[in-house]
Structures are given as structure tokens and as C-alpha cells.
Design brief:
The chain is α+β, with helices and mostly antiparallel strands. The protein has four helices and two strands, in the order ββαααα. A two-stranded antiparallel sheet has the order 1-2. Strand 1 and strand 2 form a beta hairpin. The longest helix has 16 residues.
Length: 92
């Protein structure tokens, strides 16, 4: 009696910087704020905060933006402060 197994294709080792999904290669995301050694998030810096808000005014998640958890929390806190002080709109 033979046991059939599904064979998987392996292209060899891939670089750890890239993720593969059905032949598509994606670059690994990184935290932009960790890259800048300052790492300060200020609610008055609207140019920085607008990069992390989508066109409808929602805060972009860390899974999509690539931020680390520490900076994602500080970004969301700063965005909420800026909204409260009417520096940023709640919706667009």
C-alpha cells in the first residue's frame, strides 16, 4: 500500500528581506520613525501625520504602514490630539 503525499516546490532559499506569495515578491516593511533616530512624533507636525491617514481620514494600521508598535501608539495618540484641536480633520 502506497501513501501519496503532496510534493511542494521549493525554489531554494530566499533572502530574508523579501516575502513571497504565489510568485509575487514584496519588500519587507520597516518603521520609518525608527529609521530616523529622532523618533519624535508631535501633534503639530501635520505633514508627518497626514502620511499615516488615508483619504477618508482613518488612521492607517501598522500592518499596512509598517510601523513598530511603539511608534504606532504614539502616532495614533498624536493624530487624535491634532483632531481634537482642529489641526487635522476627522473626515475628509
Amino acid at each position: 500500500m502506497f501513501i501519496l503525499r503532496k510534493e511542494t516546490k521549493r525554489d531554494g532559499k530566499r533572502d530574508s528581506k523579501f516575502k513571497s506569495n504565489k510568485g509575487m515578491i514584496f519588500r519587507k516593511k520597516f518603521c520609518r520613525l525608527c529609521k530616523d533616530k529622532s523618533g519624535k512624533v508631535d501633534y503639530k507636525d501635520t505633514k508627518l501625520l497626514e502620511k499615516f491617514i488615508n483619504d477618508r481620514g482613518k488612521i492607517i494600521s501598522c500592518r499596512i504602514s509598517g510601523n513598530c508598535a511603539k511608534h504606532q501608539r504614539s502616532l495614533s495618540h498624536a493624530i487624535k490630539r491634532a483632531r481634537f484641536l482642529a489641526i487635522l480633520p476627522y473626515t475628509r
